[in-house]
Write a structure and sequence with these properties.
- This protein has 5 domains: about 80 residues, no CATH class; about 110 residues, Immunoglobulin-like, CATH 2.60.40; about 90 residues, Sandwich (Immunoglobulin-like), CATH 2.60.40.10; about 100 residues, Sandwich (Hypothetical Protein Tm1070, Chain: A), CATH 2.60.290.11; about 70 residues, Hypothetical Protein Tm1070, Chain: A (Sandwich), CATH 2.60.290.
- The strands form 8 sheets. Strands 2-8-7-4-5 form a 5-stranded mixed β-sheet.
- The protein is built from 8 helices and 30 strands.
- The protein is mainly beta.
Amino acid sequence: MRRVLRKVGSVRPSKAKSLARNLVANLLSRKIVVKLLTRNSSAKLPTRNLMGELLAHHSVATFLVVALLGAAIFSCYPGNLAFPTAAQAETYNPEGIITVHRPPTPDDGSTVYGNITIHATAHWPQGLVFLQLWQGKTMVHAVDNGNRAAPVELAYDFNTATVPDGPVGFTLLALVYINGMGYPRYVDLNFNVLNVGPVFTWESPGDDARVAGTVDVKAQVTDAKNMNITRVQTSLDDTALNDMTLDVPQVPYDFEYSWDTTRAGFGEHTLKIEAWIELGERAEATRTVCWANLSQVESQFYFAEGTTLSNFRTYLCLGNPAPEPVNVVVDFQTRDGVMTKGYQVGAGTRRTVDVNDETGIDKDVSMGILADGEIICERPMYFNYKNAWTGGSDAMGAPVPSKTWYFAEGTTRTGFDSYLCLQNPDNTETAATLNFMVANEGLRPVPVPLPPCSRTTINVMDHIGREKDFSVKV
């Protein structure tokens, strides 16, 4: 090699290109570059010593040799390439050196799941150095052929569960000799991974629902890959209630199970359905339910007003003066529906429920409370209204719902905002008429629909305007 370097340093720059090409060919023929290329892909670019030796010679011709040698080595080193797209693959495998065997290799662009096999061979009579498989920029498998003319075979098993669902790409790379020079040849493989397991459409019971007696647990189970459902299991708080293996696997599968809730015990429980498909993949869906089968109702309260909007904090205080524990069921009613929670208040104690934590933020909330013992119930609320007024309010619950309510005081003057909070605790839709008695103007009736088990908030200014004093009959 030193003889070559001395010769390069002594010639005119016009001959440097030809000499550089000969030097590259010489290096390739001696397998210097090939040996370096077959190192682990995490190694640094394996040309530093050669490049440093060439840089020790300061003629223009030497730098041209360095540039051409670097370009030749970079062109054979996959870690420094922008890999071709699938549409360009034929250009990078013009002689058909690489053959992808389908099957078992999935078709390009196809959806894959579970374990797949990539199988390919490469053959070139002038000499083939190696055949490698790259996943993105990581070499995952390689077969060294020692620059022989014999064909080389590569088989790689890929577990698609090791990557996220979505596109995944591989590149088959072969280094071959053509007319004494080393050239890379590529074939791209692109797949779409879809390992989503069974998918549930839960019909009943709803999330945070109150359950008692016998409840029908219903769900439809499907699979995005259209694989048959083979097994379904139902459990309560991780204890199996029902485990069923399908005699005839099918998809979709309409699952139904009659659940006797009497053994659940008072309070919240996690109901879970699990399903398996033919590949063995499993998925689950859960619901939080509240068993609220009170043996008797000794206390009940209703709160139309409560909110978890920004800068508001709402609490529910439950006091039990009795010498034995009391079970309490709370229905949190919002525009989104009903969320039921169960609480036990110890003998002679007080329990505080953070409504913001129970229902989540940015909700207007009404509450209905039932207890199997005599309790005291209040609803404190603290606020920083519009970042202008800070304060709090406290209210005792109404003992029963009513069809008629009267409010004598209300105003929409500047600096005042008046609201009406309406709670419908019933399971059927109803309607209310708001009869605003506006000072010096008379009666203004406003009809308002009230969905079942819901809370409705009325901004009075929207209906009677600003600068008004009013009373209202609901």
